[in-house]
Backbone:
């Protein structure tokens, strides 16, 4: 096709240096390349990279011409909607490889995962080796975005966050370097990568320790949710005394049409194949008077990962207004306040994911996710119809204030908003200052800004 120009820049040179592909407006692939999670972006161009060298070339072109950069892993965020951006698409970097070296004493194996892989692909491949990584809950979520932001998975109480299982990364920096980053090589940068949310570079390869997991036992309980606060208290009381093999999530979901009525459910996962031990741990929850139905079955870890519905292209989406937080202690008064705030705002979605265990074993200063004393993560979300005003959203947000006021902090992976000052809620002051210092060193011009942006001068 003929040479194209973006912001006065001929892309001939960039196209000629790529092992991957440059997809431009007007090309046959452009309408597909600009899609992200069912939405249609308006990028200046999409670079489908084949490796770190292609990422270097794409970033060099963006820097030279002043183009904003959006990095796509799984494509679940809203941040690719920036018009005129150069999208660095990592989707072809999806190899999942179990290292041939000897396993650790506990059977854990080193695993190399491409920056464009999704968690479903990782779970499927590792399952063939009897291994697993505590990951995201959705098959199509990208390994990159989730890991860089934390990664609460179905085995978080046994192995911690996804980033806690990380041993190293290959990182392409804004300066034009390809670095191997680990505890022994650029250790401060490794600290920031684990929780800094993509502010410090493009990760083209993740190195994880994957754990032996012969199977899991899964339970799904449908509950009478008429007294949600009572359910949360009952869930809390069981989980506080539970072994770390037991992981669980209590959720109230809204109706999604005639075939998907609103309901309250409790999902439980026992990290291991011992069904008798799992049933003993599940028993206090199965015995709750609010239980309407229950299913308990042996499964594989990959079976836990669901596929999120993708809206059809062009569908006008509702405005989502949400709040979330890491909470140190869900005492009765706090539970009542959070449920009341959610109900007052008309927010039908309410989620409690229990933490503790291995999540809390990590020193708060060891990674950029510092809120390790939290016993639970809680989220609520409401939906405003298309055409709602900013004032409508602000009014709903104000009613959800207890989530922000009483939490240790906000979890960025469950917050799509690109809002000034949000990093100040995501990180304690000392952690934010440390991330800002890394930003000044590795990305002083803020090339990587389509994220929860930690500014070089602080945020």
Residues:
């Amino acid at each position: 096709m003929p040479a194209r120009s973006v912001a006065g820049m001929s892309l001939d040179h960039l196209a000629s240096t790529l092992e991957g592909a440059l997809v431009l407006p007007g090309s046959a692939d452009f309408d597909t390349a600009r899609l992200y999670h069912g939405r249609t972006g308006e990028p200046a161009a999409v670079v489908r990279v084949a490796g770190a060298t292609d990422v270097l070339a794409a970033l060099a072109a963006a820097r030279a011409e002043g183009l904003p950069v959006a990095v796509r892993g799984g494509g679940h965020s809203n941040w690719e909607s920036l018009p005129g951006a150069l999208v660095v698409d990592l989707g072809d970097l999806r190899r999942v490889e179990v290292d041939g070296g000897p396993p650790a004493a506990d059977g854990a194996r080193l695993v190399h995962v491409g920056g464009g892989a999704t968690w479903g692909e990782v779970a499927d491949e590792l399952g063939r080796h009897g291994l697993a990584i505590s990951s995201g809950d959705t098959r199509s979520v990208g390994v990159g975005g989730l890991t860089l932001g934390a990664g609460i998975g179905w085995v978080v109480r046994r192995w911690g966050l996804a980033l806690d299982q990380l041993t190293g990364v290959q990182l392409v920096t804004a300066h034009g370097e390809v670095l191997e980053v680990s505890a022994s090589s650029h250790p401060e940068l490794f600290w920031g990568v684990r929780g800094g949310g993509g502010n410090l570079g493009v990760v083209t390869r993740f190195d994880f320790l994957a754990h032996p997991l012969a199977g899991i036992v899964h339970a799904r309980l449908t509950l009478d949710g008429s007294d949600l606060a009572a359910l949360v208290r009952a869930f809390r009381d069981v989980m506080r005394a539970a072994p770390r093999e037991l992981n669980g999530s209590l959720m109230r979901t809204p109706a999604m049409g005639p075939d998907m009525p609103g309901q309250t459910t409790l999902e439980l996962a026992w990290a291991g194949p011992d069904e008798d031990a799992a049933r003993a741990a599940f028993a206090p929850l199965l015995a709750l008077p609010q239980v309407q139905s229950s299913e308990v079955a042996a499964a594989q870890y990959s079976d836990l990962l669901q596929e999120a519905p993708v809206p059809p292209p062009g569908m006008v989406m509702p405005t989502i207004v949400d709040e979330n937080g890491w909470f140190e202690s869900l005492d009765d008064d706090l539970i009542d306040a959070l449920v009341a705030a959610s109900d007052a705002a008309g927010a039908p979605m309410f989620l409690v994911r229990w933490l503790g265990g291995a999540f809390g074993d990590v020193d708060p200063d060891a990674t950029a996710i510092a809120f390790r004393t939290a016993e639970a993560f809680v989220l609520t979300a409401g939906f405003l119809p298309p055409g709602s005003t900013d004032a409508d959203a602000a009014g709903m947000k104000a009613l959800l204030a207890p989530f922000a006021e009483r939490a240790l902090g906000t979890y960025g992976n469950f917050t799509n908003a690109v809002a000034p000052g949000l990093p100040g809620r995501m990180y304690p002051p000392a952690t934010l200052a440390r991330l800002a210092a890394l930003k000044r060193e590795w990305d002083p011009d803020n090339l990587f800004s389509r994220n929860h942006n930690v500014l070089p001068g602080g945020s």
Notes: The radius of gyration is 22 Å. The longest helix spans residues 52-65.
